[in-house]
Amino acid sequence: MVLVPAARGIVQALMRSNTFEEIAQIMECDVESVVSCIKECQLVEGNTATFKLPTKPATVRRPHKVADNVVEQILRDHPSYTSLDVQRQLASQHGIEMNRRTLQRRVSDIKSKAVPAKNVGLSVDARNRRVDWALAHQDWTVRDWRNVFNMDDQKFVDGSPPKQIFVDTLVGPEGSNSSDLSLREQLMAIIQPKIEAQAPKNVHEFRAVLYDAWHSDQEMVDKIEQLYESMPGRVQLVLLSGGDKIKL
């Protein structure tokens, strides 16, 4: 296709800020015609310099830095959080919405590159809190821990009354960053991978999905039972070590 003289002036004007492909789209012609037209114009003007394709600087797509920084901070504060946990906190506490799949990749990337923090030890206050917590639970049996959470809403009894369950029984010693003693975090680490693909949107859906898994996924139930069986031993290790973290 040969461009008429009137069109050549337009091409010359466009070449200052557009690529050949963009000019061809604007002029509704093929790229070869654009190249031929520009070469001809340059020869007429006496411009015999090497002919180069006008280019625009490539657009570099950067991730949302603010959201990325918030995600990293959330995972530093809560290493056991899944992408679903992070998504909920982003929305509820920071007003940030992120695509679920994008967030899953980002969480996976951050966790894979995370460098374990140096063990600087727990503060005296944190150790004391852990010891106090362990003393309060030192006579708890596996049955007592099993009664904290089960989807059948039943209490296991063996002749003695069930223990009273407090908030710190489930979440661990307050203010001591004790994920090793947080039954909630340990349970979620087992449960979340099993139900995450179904992405429950509210508490009702979460319970329904978990109820189905509880009665169909024996592997999950076995891991939860192993967790309950480990809790009395964890309590004793905390007491013997004076409040040190437990190596899981």
From TrEMBL:
GO terms for molecular function: nucleic acid binding. Gene3D superfamilies: Ribonuclease H-like superfamily/Ribonuclease H (3.30.420.10). InterPro entries: RNaseH_sf. It comes from the Eukaryota. This is Transposase Tc1-like domain-containing protein. It comes from Drosophila madeirensis.
